[in-house]
Design a protein that fits this description.
This is NocN. It comes from Streptomyces filamentosus NRRL 15998. Keywords: Flavoprotein, FMN, Oxidoreductase. FMN binds at residues 86-88, 115, 135, 163, 240, 262, 295-299, 318-319. This protein is an alpha/beta fold. The protein has a single domain, classed as Aldolase class I (TIM Barrel, Alpha-Beta Barrel). 43% of the residues lie in helices and 13% in strands. It has an 8-stranded parallel β-sheet with strand order 4-11-10-9-8-7-6-5. Strands 1-12 form a two-stranded antiparallel sheet. It is globular.
């Protein structure tokens, strides 16, 4: 049975259903690339445990019959406080890759963030008509950095998101054990023009992707580099990979319009604080001077509601989008986003929240993860 036939036979009723479909159809090495984290993978588990510890305190008799999850993200309208996170090499999951996911984001009315390591060019993704933001990994080749920013602007991207937590790629043991390499038809379309790169060749004792990114990415970045990017573009500037409130304040001082509280989905520093636990302190530190988004561990609409209550303007949704892409291409991603919107809307109504502003005023309590 094909992935599409599986979806037709039993439409998913929760994101875990989509995850099961994706795992059934993906090759084990690709599944491990999507699902894996760095080191012990305890940070991935901690992300989920930290969400489970956030108990919402609902309001009653607020007159809410049906909540409205619409909001504004970076000055633009969004059907819900969600954007699709930047994720590399989506053609690993489906031939249409980022194009299918972006079309689903457009249908859902949420922004789509194009990765530097997208397997389709930023120009082609933007041409889908989705609200598109561009994620930049700062490269050793500064001229290439400048070219990528100019291309994103020319393509009509609405924001520039700079990822700052990857001076090198975290050691992802699943990929190392699998000797993971990219298939020949998948490449970083915004960067690669030759027949093959390090990402397509096996390296003993290391991930091919780690070797590739080590050669391409600039280590040792400073706030001066961020200020240079701020001066180079008029796009809203988003800094992704913030966990310490001091860094959030520095980002604001450097001209950031938003920060993303993120531990890279548990794929970078093994032992990092869960993103949702870091969120309240970061939100307090910036004091409304910039927007605050949350990334890492979001697995449904209730998690979005928790993030709003803890100070986020919205969230970036990552792995569930890849599950949907693997399970059914554009339709699979549309189902993922629809499930998130349904759960969020119901959660807001049950919590007595008419809109995102009311959700931000909810109280929370911290409880045991198993409760």
């Amino acid at each position: 049975m094909t992935a599409a036939e599986m979806l037709e036979a039993a439409d998913p009723v929760c994101l875990e259903d989509v995850r099961a479909h994706a795992r059934a159809v993906l090759e084990p090495g690709i599944w491990d690339f999507v699902e894996g984290g760095s080191g012990t993978e305890r940070v991935m588990a901690a992300n989920r445990a930290a969400f489970a510890e956030v108990a919402l305190v609902p309001r009653v008799l607020t007159g809410v019959a049906e909540a409205d999850p619409r909001t504004r993200l970076l000055g633009g309208h969004a059907a819900m406080p969600v954007a699709v996170a930047p994720m590399a090499y989506q053609r690993l999951l489906h031939d249409d890759g980022e194009l299918a996911a972006a079309r689903a984001a457009r249908a859902a009315g949420v922004p789509f963030v194009v990765s530097t390591l997208s397997s389709h060019r930023v120009e082609d993704v933007a041409a889908t008509g989705a609200t598109t933001w561009f994620q930049l990994y700062c490269l050793r080749d500064r001229a290439k950095n400048h070219e990528l920013v100019a291309r994103a602007e020319a393509a009509g991207c609405g924001a520039l998101m700079v990822t700052v937590d990857v001076p090198l790629m975290g050691r992802r043991l699943r990929d190392v054990r699998n000797g993971f390499v990219l298939p020949r038809h998948v490449r970083a379309a915004n960067l690669d023009s030759g027949p093959a790169t390090e990402a397509h060749r096996r390296f003993g004792g290391d991930s091919a992707l780690a070797v590739h990114t080590s050669a391409a990415f600039a280590p040792g970045l400073t706030w001066r580099d961020l200020a240079e990017l701020r001066d180079r573009t008029s796009l809203p500037l988003v800094v992704k990979g913030i966990l310490d409130p001091r860094d959030a304040r520095s980002a604001v001082e450097a001209g950031a319009d938003a920060v993303v509280v993120s531990n890279h989905g548990g794929r970078q520093l093994d032992g990092a604080v869960p993103s949702v636990r870091a969120l309240p302190a970061v939100a307090e530190a910036v004091g409304g001077a910039c927007e605050v988004l949350l990334d890492s561990g979001v697995r449904g609409g209730t998690d979005v509601l928790r993030a709003l209550a803890l100070g986020a303007r919205g969230v970036l949704l990552g792995r569930p989008v890849l599950w949907g892409l693997a399970a059914g291409g554009r339709r699979g991603v549309e189902q993922v986003l629809d499930l998130v919107r349904t759960e969020l809307g119901q959660g807001m109504t049950l919590a007595g929240c008419a809109d995102a502003t009311a959700a931000a005023e909810l109280r929370t309590e911290r409880t045991a993860a198993h409760a």
